[in-house]
Design brief:
12 strands; alpha+beta; 415 residues; Chitinase A, domain 3; 49% helix; 5-stranded antiparallel β-sheet; Triger factor/SurA peptide-binding fold
């Protein structure tokens, strides 16, 4: 089994096995630098494809064989084209990612690999990965997130009627069965693209059936927002899923994978992680907490601003715990039922995903920020439903945004 860096959002690649940088053969160099695709006059080279393909194979835990490379070349190239379109759109909107966000992202990647920042960068260099190239890729991902948040998030509205409708749907699920599933989503924007999307989904299913880890394949190839967490959707009722996915999941057994499942706009691969009856489980959460002291009312405004700045840097409970060491020293709290939380805290963390932070909250000793470390069980509440609906609608808008970018782009594939 090959050792690899376990990067969740940003995966890394290995140059050494291909020997391109050390090759003395001009023909090989010319071949690797020729265009694999041209996206609005910007070239994606064969070397780009080879490096990303190798990255995908390493991170997915697959054996590097000609057959595997052949099956994955198409989805890898499609991902590179989409990434190039996203970078171009961020540039058009004059979106620049602050240096501190890139630095925080690098720290996060090191932490995910259980390394210090220095160890992580040293390992990358040993594998032939340039630090600046890694920064550029991370900067592009952060820029696209800002594009979506700036252009689309203000368009998303969730009304009380929407929440009540979803509550009613959940209550009408007589079995009250909840499932934990993971997803891989491959979109298509038109009937002409559907065949390629299905073929890509089938290629990925073949790899999963050959033993590839679902989480890693999702991180590499899924076009859903859950890709960054390995496709994990968490615990949901069948009523919360599309009818096509719910029909497939209903008869699945844990650890089984189903697909390709056709829905409006794309194909899904679904893995069933677990199944449980809602009445048997009480939702429990684990939080990390840091607090900026504020002894008087005059101190609250400054403490709130400081807490908000620190919260922007936090991407995990470990980071929140380190910040806590500099202040109140509380850090990660014991796992407890959601209902046991203070009402204000419960409301603040209801819609968070793992690693997300709450808004700063005024407390007796100062201003606190909470980070969600773990959520277990099947608690259903209005805040969580609102957050899920908002996320689903933002995801749909994001897909339409990408569809429009692809439709308006001049893309020429040369392989």
């Amino acid at each position: 089994m090959r050792n690899s860096l376990a990067v969740l959002v940003l995966t890394v690649f290995v140059l050494a096995p291909f020997g391109f940088l050390a090759s003395a053969a001009p023909a090989g160099a010319q071949s690797s630098l020729r265009a694999a695709a041209v996206v609005n006059d910007e070239v994606i080279s064969m070397l780009d494809v080879i490096l990303r393909l190798r990255m995908a194979i390493v991170q997915s835990g697959l054996e590097d064989t000609p057959e595997v490379r052949d099956r994955l070349t198409t989805p890898v190239l499609r991902g590179l084209i989409d990434e190039r379109l996203q970078i171009q759109e961020a540039r058009r909107l004059e979106i620049e990612v602050p240096l501190e966000q890139v630095e925080a992202g690098l720290d996060r990647l090191a932490e995910q690999n259980n390394m210090t920042r220095g160890q992580f960068m040293s390992t990358l260099r040993e594998q032939g990965v340039l630090e600046e190239a890694l920064r550029d890729q991370l900067r592009a991902q952060l820029a696209w997130r800002e594009v979506v948040n700036r252009r689309l998030a203000p368009q998303v509205t969730v009304t009380d009627e929407d929440i009540e409708d979803m509550l009613q749907r959940i209550k009408e699920d007589v079995s009250q069965t909840r499932v934990r599933i993971a997803e891989i989503f491959i979109p298509f924007d038109s009937p002409a693209e559907e065949g390629d999307a299905r073929a890509t989904a089938q290629r990925l299913l073949d790899e999963l059936q050959q033993g590839a880890a679902f989480q890693r394949v999702a991180q590499q190839f899924s076009q859903a927002p859950t890709a960054s967490v390995g496709g994990d959707l968490g615990w949901v009722t069948l009523q919360e899923l599309s009818s096509e996915v719910a029909d497939a999941v209903r008869d699945m057994q844990p650890r089984q994978v189903a697909g390709p499942i056709r829905t409006i706009g794309g194909y899904y691969l679904i893995a069933l992680v677990g199944r449980q009856a809602a009445q048997d489980v009480q939702e429990r959460v684990q939080l990390a907490r840091f607090l900026i002291p504020a002894e008087t009312d005059d101190d609250v405004q400054a403490a709130t601003a400081q807490a908000a700045r620190l919260a922007e840097e936090v991407q995990s409970c470990a980071q929140a715990s380190r910040i806590a060491e500099d202040y109140d020293g509380e850090g990660v709290l014991p796992t407890q039922p959601t209902d046991a939380l203070d009402e204000r805290v419960r409301s603040a963390v209801a819609g968070l995903r793992i690693g997300d932070t709450s808004v700063p909250l005024r407390e007796a000793e100062g201003v606190a920020v909470y980070t969600l470390c773990l959520r277990e069980g099947s608690g259903i509440n209005r805040e969580a439903i609102e957050a899920d609906l908002r996320s689903q609608r933002l995801e749909l808008l994001g897909r339409r945004y990408m569809r429009d970018l692809r439709r308006d782009a001049n893309v020429e594939i040369r392989i």
